[in-house]
């Protein structure tokens, strides 16, 4: 399937999600173009993680559609029902996700953590997996730690392995949920450097972050998320220097 | 009457005792393996709250945890054939009855152990596996079970050691395991200490070997590269 130039690669349309009485996403629209790097800012509890998890089909929205490469994601084209978990699994392969707490598999070495995706999901042979995993580890400056287990790595190193683990599946878009929030300040730089490298290589990225520097200098578009909705979307210059919404002004007052 | 050392050594190395010990080990292995399989299924059913089945699972666990093992063995050996005529046939030996009785009861115990082991695995592990595109079965096999095993090793080893000793209860259904053999000898000679001591030595040796095996297994689940077992060679390349 082909996306027309300028049309979004990924488009979440009218997403609602509630937990019990709590309406977390309220008919949220959200899109990202091919090659675009989009930063999402917003207060804690505003629903940023929920939006990413719904987009990655890790959680199913109560209503709304997700369009990916021009086709409905997670549903049959002519149906409004979500597919079953096994079928959803197949569709998740093209969307990479990186978590705040890394979530590396503790029983596998760094190399095995990266190789397990191609090995179990794509059925690639062991040698080729190791080769592809090694290449991806180099990509995130982690080749020297290939044989180490997660508990032997620093948080920053773990997060870079987690990025490699997502990249090795050749995703069309990478979703980052506060990738540096759990890190000691001195470890943030290494992860941001890898993310900048990805951005410069043309990867489509959605990054929930509190790193204002990253949003300003690496992102193409910055989004303000407030109470389950996007309230402002602008270029970094406009967003930071001339914010339009109250929510953004309030938020920036607190972080900068 | 003093301790007859020769009698002790003779019985220790007798074919009867060795066979009895072997039988105890085989029954324990089969029952434990069956118990792990049953326990895992019960745990999955209860954790996923499968309708109807989870009530049956709850009932199963409730019954088998409540009944004394001796009673379970007697029920399987004596009462089952009353309802299931084919169990009166020669295939239904004390060996099979012991494996069934001990295994089914072990399933109830293992389900609790495995349920807590599975819930001890961090939620984020399954999420990460799903995000990669793994199906529930792939995630279970490649990500959750290995981590669950690590948590389950100590309590399961404990269960297995108990199981070895529980096989001695099968003497009531005439299984020719270790303790039954000792009892037979005692009954015909009225010498207690020698035969009991020989049986005790077998149990000591078996349990010691198991304890060593357990600590070996636990080391394999340390998940650090400073262990000799690591198979992936560390390729270091200077950039
Ligand atoms: N599985 C869940 N069950 C119940 N409530 C949930 C669940 N996940 C999220 N919530 C609630 O939804 C709201 C939004 O959560 P979400 O994690 O999306 O916020 P966030 O913007 O990512 O916040 P943070 O910056 O703290 O990560 C929160 O109030 C949270 O308590
Ligand atoms: Mg969050």
Give structural notes.
- In chain A, helix 4 crosses helix 5 (155-167).
- Helices cover 36% and strands 25% of the residues of chain A.
- Chain A has helices at 48-55, 85-92, 110-121, 126-139, 155-167, 185-200, 212-217, 236-241, 246-255, and strands spanning 8-19, 22-33, 37-42, 63-68, 71-72, 95-98, 173-177, 204-208, 221-226, 229-234.
- Chain A starts with 7 loop residues before the first strand and ends with a helix.
- The mean pLDDT of chain A is 94.
- The longest helix of chain B has 33 residues, at 15-47.
- With 239 residues, chain B is mainly alpha-helical.
- The model of chain B is unreliable at 229-239 (pLDDT under 50).
- Chain B has one domain: MetI-like (MetI-like fold).
- In chain B, helix 2 (15-47) packs across helix 9.
- Chains A and B meet through helix 2, strand 6, helix 3 and helix 5 of A and helix 6 and helix 7 of B.
Describe, in short, the structure shown.
With 256 residues, chain A is α/β, with parallel strands linked by helices.
Name some characteristics of this structure:
heterodimer, A: 256 residues, alpha/beta, six-stranded mixed β-sheet, four-stranded antiparallel β-sheet, 36% helix, B: mainly alpha, MetI-like fold, 74% helix, binds magnesium ion
| Fraction of residues in helix of chain A | 25-40%
Helix/strand structural class of chain A? alpha/beta
Instruction: Return the domain count of chain B.
Output: 1
Q: For the CA atoms, what is the radius of gyration of chain B?
A: 22 Å
- What's the end-to-end separation of chain B, in Å? 81 Å
Task: Name the structural class of chain B.
Answer: mainly alpha
Shape of chain B: flat
Structural shape of chain A:
globular
- Provide the spatial order of strands within the biggest beta sheet of chain A: 6-7-8-3-9-10
The counted number of beta strands of chain B is 0
Number of strands of chain A: 10
CATH architecture of chain B: Orthogonal Bundle
- The CATH superfamily of chain B appears as MetI-like
Chain-averaged pLDDT of chain B: 91
Give the largest chain-chain interface (CB within 8 Å).
A-B, 41 and 32 residues
**What about the largest sheet of chain B?**
none
- Mean pLDDT of chain A, rounded to whole units? 94
Low-confidence stretches of chain B: 229-239
Q: Which percent band covers the strand fraction of chain B?
A: under 5%
